[in-house]
Fold this protein.
Amino acid sequence: MFQNLRIRIIHYFINRELKRNGRDKLATSITQAKTVGVLFSTENEKYNELISKFIEDLSSTRKFVHALGFVPATHVPGIFFSTMKIDIITPKDFNFFGVPVSGVIKQFISKKFDILIDLTLIDHLPIEYIASVSHAGFKAGRYREVMVKHYDFLVAKNEDMNESEYLKYFLDYLTKINTSVL
């Protein structure tokens, strides 16, 4: 019951923020984007390595990449992200209601990325808030009913797909977006 109340409260804050700050939507493929925001959660070490490689590859194409990794615990383990250009956030970076209090998160939200890519495989209210109110021109993420109204492009993850297959599948679609027909 408490969790349902918390979800309703965070959705209230999301809707309030969206009314205050609109965004300019513009379909963009991953190849056309010059600035990219990446959201992910850190529960799966194998998937973390895939995301790390993706961020490195993307950065090597002279794109500005800003990544936020969500650690659902309050203590950040000494994981390999400390050597990369990835900001790690925890529940401590949010108030009781789930609204960000961290300057890093507020800066990420206000950045007008060409594309925001949510690579989370598990639902987290803090990531949902960040992705929903982000000022990115184009938002892409894993299909889930609650995000349909916030994302411009959603890709479903079949249950039989492993992390590597899903990431490849997702990114293949992001490269195929043809903005000339939109």
Summary: Residues 26 and 137 are 5 Å apart (CA to CA). The first helix runs from residue 2 to 20. The chain has a mean pLDDT of 85.
